[in-house]
Design brief:
Strand order of the largest sheet: 1-4-5
Number of strands: 6
Number of helices: 5
Radius of gyration: 48 Å
Order of helices and strands: HHHHEEEEEEH
Shape: elongated
Helix content: 55-70%
Structural class: alpha+beta
């Protein structure tokens, strides 16, 4: 009976080994399986070359698009930087224009005080002369401070007396015949002009010369 039990256990062990062997073969067969044919193996050399050329063309187009986008971004960055610089430069333009009237009034006061002092030099009392002198000096110092402030913020004066007329910087208020200067020359400045960082914020109001009529008739 012991022998029968041993034979039975041996047969059972053999069956287990057989099943394990079959399972292993199935697994090995699955690992070694070949993927389905996708048709690449049937491509001729000419077709392969054509595919390669198409791929290279697509790659080149992608590179060109990338370079174009990079160039556009660089241009946008440059324009943005220029806009920011202009905003910093000309942000105080309106404020500067408002100050020009103050500058004009100080200059007029200075000119009037000087003219009044000269006219009344022999008639006014000493005390009046001292008062006028004090006012004159005060206005002169204020005007000097304004001029320094303008220079600090790149506000430059345009006073073109004797220069050729420039429509970009000057505004002609009148034209007068004058044989002593070249035609289209500035012979008088009625009001100074100003620029901010080179940009005109107020043109100079000027009188421009022209050749006398007799000279024009003689030349013709």
């Amino acid at each position: 009976m012991s022998k029968h039990r041993a034979d039975k256990e041996e047969n059972k062990s053999t069956e287990t080994e057989t099943e394990a062997t079959e399972d292993s073969e199935e697994l090995l067969g699955a690992d070694d399986s070949i993927p389905p044919d996708l048709g690449f193996g049937e491509m001729t050399s000419e077709q392969a070359v054509e595919k390669l050329e198409q791929f290279e063309l697509a790659t080149q187009n992608a590179k060109d698009d990338l370079l174009r986008v990079q160039a556009e971004m660089q241009n946008l960055r440059r324009r943005t930087q220029q806009d920011v610089e202009k905003a910093h430069k000309y942000g105080q333009e309106k404020f500067a224009i408002e100050l020009l009237g103050v500058m004009d009034n100080l200059e007029r006061a200075l000119a009037a005080a000087g003219a009044n002092g000269e006219a009344d030099a022999g008639e006014s009392a000493v005390n009046d002369d001292e008062k006028i002198k004090a006012i004159y000096e005060g206005v002169e110092l204020t005007l000097k401070s304004f001029a320094e402030c303008f220079s600090q913020f790149n506000i430059e004066v345009v006073e073109p007396h004797g220069e050729p007329f420039d429509p970009e910087l000057h505004q002609a208020m009148s034209i007068q015949e004058n044989a002593e200067v070249e035609p289209k020359s500035v012979i008088a400045v009625m009001q100074k002009g100003y620029t901010l960082h080179g940009r005109v914020i107020r043109p100079a109001m000027v009188i421009v010369s022209k050749a006398p009529a007799e000279s024009i008739d003689h030349d013709s």
